[in-house]
């Protein structure tokens, strides 16, 4: 949010030309005569690099989280997944309806998917402000329906924001995805293979006309989730290495060749006991949260308060109310109806007040909402894009404040927990 404020300040300051120049600056990564960062022969601008390349890494990270949740997390069984899926379904449909009730005329209606998304990081961040007062089951519920929201957002991007498709590029990319799926099935855990072919798939998607971020999600689903070495065998190997570790008479800082050999065995075993999926997810956490997302916010939250068109319009209102009203109404009503119809039951330690508070936090739709706004309007309609951005920021801030205040008032006080 700090970076977003900085972007708005830059966009409306005497230095706005430097801000816009930074976003329009061409960027290349050339190998011989081949430029990896190009689209049909033209170098990507910095804005395109952030939105098409770095955000593909973001969605790759999201894809890893989704795969983990499906395999061993809150989406790993029908019983676990039913409540968040139903909650997320309402939380995606109702905001679109609210949006279209306010703005149903083209080109403004193209932004109807903007208020669908929930930002996992921001919403969990607000929830964490209340510390131990928040039951674990409530955090799990928020995380799970936000993950399902992400799946919905990815499907929307894939289905509705694709123009002309270059089938040669797309089919080649899907062929490489099939190769990675086969490698995963054969338990080939060499991370370099997935990284190199993943970059190739991203480039082919970029040229195909299907948004390149979809490549990040598809590649993530091919990453092996099983480690090469089971934890029991790993412990046995480590114990053996420790017991047979060559000892010398002195405490020299220089290791012997035998000692280095055993340490390499331990290092290799430690590497094999972590699956590629967990390794990549862990390694990307810092890059995504502290570099890609702030840079994305800086590049996309720069609302210009003067210029063409009105900054506050029906799109602003539609996006803001879609997040502030549509998300909580959709999430809460879907949950309530599903429980009353005995399709699902509420998790232990969760009541209807806490469900409503978390439903309000579902209106925090910052990252993916900004991304969909750019796809909806782009540079072709700057006025509507600025309106959408302002609506996202208003909706996110208001939803966060309402959700925090309601939960802070209704959750048990710390003294009661003690």
Order of helices and strands: HHEEEEEHHHHHHHHHHHHHHH
Strand content: under 5%
* Structural class assignment: mainly alpha
* Share of helical residues: 55-70%
CATH homologous superfamily grouping of the largest domain: Na+/H+ antiporter like domain
Q: Specify the CATH architecture of the largest domain.
A: Up-down Bundle
CATH class of the largest domain: Mainly Alpha
Radius of gyration: 24 Å
Please outline the major beta sheet: 3 strands, antiparallel
Q: Which blocks of ≥5 consecutive residues have pLDDT under 50?
A: none
Q: Give the count of structural domains.
A: 2
Shape: globular
Order of strands, main sheet, comes to 1-5-4
Distance between the termini: 34 Å
Number of strands: 5
Chain-averaged pLDDT? 87
Descriptive report:
With 418 residues, the chain is mainly alpha-helical. It folds into two domains: 2-227 and 274-417, Na+/H+ antiporter like domain (Na+/H+ antiporter like fold), CATH 1.20.1530; 231-270, no CATH class. The chain contains 17 helices and five strands. The protein has helices at residues 2-11, 16-24, 46-72, 78-102, 120-128, 136-160, 167-185, 191-208, 213-222, 231-243, 257-272, 276-300, 314-340, 352-361, 366-376, 382-410, 414-417; strands at 26-27, 30-31, 34-35, 38-39, 42-45. The strands form two sheets. A three-stranded antiparallel beta sheet has the order 1-5-4. Strands 2-3 form a two-stranded antiparallel ribbon. Strand 4 and strand 5 (42-45) form a beta hairpin. The longest helix is centred in the last third of the chain and has 29 residues, at 382-410. The chain is globular, with a radius of gyration of 24 Å. The model has no long low-confidence stretch (mean pLDDT 87).
């Amino acid at each position: 949010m700090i970076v977003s404020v900085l972007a708005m300040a830059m966009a409306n300051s005497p230095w706005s030309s430097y801000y816009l120049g930074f976003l329009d600056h061409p960027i290349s990564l050339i190998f011989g005569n081949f430029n990896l960062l190009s689209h049909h022969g033209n170098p990507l601008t910095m804005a395109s690099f952030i939105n098409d390349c770095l955000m593909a890494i973001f969605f790759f990270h999201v894809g890893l989280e989704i795969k983990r949740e499906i395999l061993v997390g809150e989406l790993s069984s029908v019983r676990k997944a039913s409540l968040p899926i139903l909650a997320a379904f309402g939380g995606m449909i109702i905001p679109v309806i609210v949006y279209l009730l306010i703005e149903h005329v083209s080109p403004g209606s193209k932004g109807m998917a903007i208020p669908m998304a929930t930002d996992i990081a921001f919403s969990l961040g607000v929830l964490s402000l209340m510390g131990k007062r928040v039951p674990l089951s409530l955090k799990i519920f928020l995380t799970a329906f936000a993950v399902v929201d992400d799946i919905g957002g990815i499907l929307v991007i894939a289905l509705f924001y694709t123009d002309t498709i270059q089938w040669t590029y797309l089919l080649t990319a899907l062929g490489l995805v099939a190769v990675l799926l086969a490698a995963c099935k054969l338990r080939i855990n060499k991370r370099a293979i997935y990284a190199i072919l993943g970059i190739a798939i991203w480039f082919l998607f970029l040229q195909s006309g299907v948004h390149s971020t979809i490549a990040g999600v598809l590649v993530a689903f091919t990453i092996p989730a099983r480690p090469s070495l089971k934890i029991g065998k790993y412990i046995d190997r480590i114990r053996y290495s420790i017991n047979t570790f060559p000892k010398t008479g002195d405490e020299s800082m220089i290791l012997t060749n035998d000692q280095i050999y055993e340490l390499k065995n331990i290092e290799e075993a430690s590497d094999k006991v972590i699956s590629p999926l967990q390794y990549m997810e862990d390694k990307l956490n810092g890059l995504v949260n502290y570099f890609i997302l702030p840079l994305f916010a800086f590049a996309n939250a720069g609302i210009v308060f003067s210029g063409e068109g009105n900054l506050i319009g029906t799109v602003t209102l539609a996006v803001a109310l879609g997040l502030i009203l549509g998300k909580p109404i959709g999430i809460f009503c879907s949950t309530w109806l599903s429980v009353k119809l005995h399709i699902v039951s509420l998790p232990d330690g969760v009541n209807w007040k806490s469900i409503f508070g978390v439903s309000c936090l579902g209106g925090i739709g910052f990252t993916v909402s900004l991304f969909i706004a750019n796809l909806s309007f782009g540079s072709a309609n700057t006025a509507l894009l600025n309106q959408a951005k302002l609506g996202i920021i208003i909706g996110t801030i208001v939803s966060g404040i309402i959700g925090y205040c309601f939960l802070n008032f209704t959750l048990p006080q710390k003294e009661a927990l003690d």
